[in-house]
């Protein structure tokens, strides 16, 4: 069992945080953005970036080559649907995608929208971690958190039409 402190300060004990989130035992702050038979989308609100989405496998796996054929097909369709929602609902022009297989969570991809304030951290992969840390440390104020929560609701509403 692991002790985990969530973004909103809740302290929980779980065997696997991802399993608990996809089964609904633990509600991420802001709730579920979208889910299919195989995948679950939510936001880690510890990083108040409007439109950031984490798409995770429901199965307890970590690598892309562990996905079944059905999951692979569903993955790209789900990723596409969320990306389309980010553009149509939130006007997001570019998204950075990041995933690592040596994760302590399930197979998951970070979909990080690109905003003008991020340019000072450079472009491409080297900017991803500094951008996330900057958001967590310096943009964690009411205004940004509210925008982030509103975006979660807008994405959920849009994506709800497809499931
Ligand atoms: Zn798990």
Mean pLDDT: 94
Largest sheet: 5 strands, antiparallel
Cα shape: globular
CATH class value: Alpha Beta
Query: Structural class given helices, strands, pairing?
Result: alpha+beta
Number of domains: 1
CATH architecture: 2-Layer Sandwich
Strand order of the largest sheet: 3-4-5-7-6
Helical content stands at 25-40%
Q: How much beta, percentage-wise?
A: 15-25%
CATH superfamily caption: HIT-like
Distance between the termini: 33 Å
Listing every helix as H and every strand as E from the N terminus to the C terminus, the arrangement reads EEHEEEHEEHH
What's the CATH topology name?
HIT family, subunit A
Radius of gyration: 15 Å
Q: Give the number of helices.
A: 4
**Ligand set:** zinc ion
Count of distinct strands:
7
């Amino acid at each position: 069992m692991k002790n985990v402190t969530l973004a909103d300060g809740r302290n929980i004990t779980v065997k696997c945080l991802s399993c608990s989130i996809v089964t609904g035992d633990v509600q991420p702050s802001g709730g579920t953005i979208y889910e299919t038979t195989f995948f679950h989308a939510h936001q880690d609100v510890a990083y108040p970036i409007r439109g950031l989405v984490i798409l995770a496998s429901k199965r307890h796996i970590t690598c892309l080559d562990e996905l079944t054929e059905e999951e692979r097909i569903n993955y790209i369709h789900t990723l596409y649907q969320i990306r389309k929602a980010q553009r149509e609902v939130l006007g997001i022009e570019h998204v950075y995608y990041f995933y690592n297989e040596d994760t302590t969570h399930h197979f998951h991809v970070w979909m990080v929208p690109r905003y003008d304030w991020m340019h000072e951290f450079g472009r491409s992969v080297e900017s991803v971690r500094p951008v996330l840390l900057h958001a967590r440390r310096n943009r964690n104020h009411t205004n940004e958190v509210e925008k982030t929560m509103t975006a979660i609701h807008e994405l959920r509403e849009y994506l709800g039409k497809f499931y």
